Amino acid sequence: MAVNATSGTSLNSSTGLGQGIDVNTFVQSALSFDQANINQLQTQQSIVDAQSKALSQITSDLNALESTVFSLKDPLGSLASQTAASSNTSVLTAAASSSALAGVHNVTVNSLATTSSYYTDAVASSTTALAAGSFQFQVGNRIPVSVPVDSTNNTLDGLAASINNLDAGVRASVIHDANGARLALVSETTGAPGDLTVSANTTGLTFNKAVTGANASLVVDGVPISSTTNSVASVINGVTLNLTSASPASSVTLTVSPDTSKATDALNQFVSAYNTAIKDVNAQFAVAANGSGGGPLEADGSLREAQSALLSAIAYSNSGSGNIVNLHSLGISLNNDGTLSVNQGALATNLSGHYSDVQNFLQTSTTGFAQNLSSILHNLTDSTAGPLGLDAKSLQQTSQQLGSHISDLQSNLAVKQANLILIYSQVNATLQELPLLQQQLSRQLASF
Questions:
Q1: If pLDDT is split at 50, 70 and 90, which confidence band does 9 have?
Q2: Half-sphere exposure (CA, 13 Å, Cβ side) for 393?
Q3: I need a labelling partner for 390 at 20 to 30 A (CA). Which of 104, 243, 372, 416 fits?
Q4: Using an 8 Å Cβ cutoff, are 198 and 137 in contact?
Q5: DSSP per residue over 352-385, as a string?
Q6: Distance of CA 340 to CAs 194, 318, 333, 334, 421, Å?
């Protein structure tokens, strides 16, 4: 802590009568022990803060790892994903949810669902004045809607806006071509329920029906199906069929199977997250032969416990899961440094040929690998009882206590410094005045 003498005080390094003293040097010397004590506590706090920061990073790594493990153990997660492959995507495609069951289905698309529409004969332009009158349109079995044509909307642009403002299940627009402008009406409901009818027309417009609303017709595994839309979601459990064209003379094969690509991604993400965590843990204990290296937590027993628990969890084996009993049999190997490597070929073979065994190994409720590792990770990082969670709290409390102690000592030091500056400044002033006092005394003595 720098010490500044009061104004007018000599900072001459020499001392003696008439010369005064170096107040700054004297004050610093008197406070050196107190400042050394503060410096020592600050060093201790820096060490604790470095330990806390390193532990926070490792805990973050383990939380990220636990997230990837949850995806592996979740019955509706990545390993539950299904895919639906069509033998003819020009006729239909499909999407499968996790509730779909693996299997093969035959689908014949006889006809697609259509959307009903009307158009008028052409007039000169969209702003051409139309004769007054009215007409009605009806969507399926709904109540007919009347559309008046008067001075407020007697153009095609005006009529389209009026119809759209009704919000009655029909979208109107104006179409331009070489013959002029036409009013087009399109039902907002596909299939037979959305079939449009225009009636009671007393305007000068002529309405023509372009498309009749009809349901899609298909056959799924021999069962005839009628659908109001070309997206059919209720026929095969967990599968949505998207009809793209009719092909009544040929059947499409639809294969529902586990989505091995999502499972592969989930396992690779797990390996990546695990390697990040174990590398950060190992780095704390990486001491060279000469004793150099190591991290702030190299003497932390809780982290040693976490390292041992992780390595033990990775070696976990479940003999009741068929062909896949451990990570190695799945295609994931443990390296000498504790990290994992994925044999992508072996993993792909196991996922395509032993998918249910992979699921059993990872997801069995009480003995699954993912469930076991998830429990271990939670127990390590739990803020109320986990060794790393408790360790983090202890480090935080220690840093706060040190900070509070340092703050108190610095406050006391500031008061002590101010007092010492005052005392030594007075001494300095007295020493500087002594020659003058001596001269005065000598003159007084000489006068006798």
A1: very low
A2: 9
A3: 372
A4: yes
A5: HH-HHHHHHHHH-TTT-HHHHHHHHHHHHH-TTT
A6: 58, 19, 6, 5, 65
Residue type at position 439: Q
Query: Cβ(3)–Cβ(382) under 8 Å?
Result: no
Indicate the Cα dihedral angle 170, 176, 179, 181, nearest 10°.
Answer: 50
Cβ 409 vs Cβ 38: under 8 Å: yes
The 10s digit of each residue's pLDDT in 236-284 is 999 999 999 999 999 999 999 999 999 999 999 999 999 999 999 999 9
> What is the rounded distance in angstroms from the CA atom of residue 202 to the CA atom of residue 7?
105
* C-beta separation of 348 from 264 below 8 A: yes
Secondary element (H or E) of residue 243:
strand 239-243
Dihedral sign from CA coordinates of 180, 185, 186, 191: negative
- Quote the CA–CA distance of 81 and 100 in Å, as a whole number: 9
DSSP 175-230: EEETTEEEEEEEESS-SGGG-EEEE---SS--EEEEE----EEEEETTEEEEESSS
Which H/E stretch holds residue 241?
Answer: strand 239-243
Residue 104: strand, helix, or coil: strand
The tens digit of pLDDT for each residue in 62-107 reads: 999 999 999 999 988 899 899 999 999 999 999 999 889 999 999 9
**Residue 440 or 163, more confident:** 163
pLDDT given for residue 268 in this prediction: 97
Question: Angle 260-283/344-353 helices, nearest 10 degrees?
Answer: 140
> How many C-beta neighbours within 10 Å does residue 298 have?
16
Which segments within 283-401 are labelled E, that is strand?
332-334, 340-342
- Extract the runs of DSSP E, i.e. beta strands, from 9-122: 82-86, 92-96, 103-111, 117-120
Across 202-228, average pLDDT: 96
pTM value?
0.71
Place of tokens 């994925």: 342
**422: how many CB neighbours lie within 10 A of its CB?**
13
Backbone angles phi, psi at 336, to 5 degrees: -65, -30
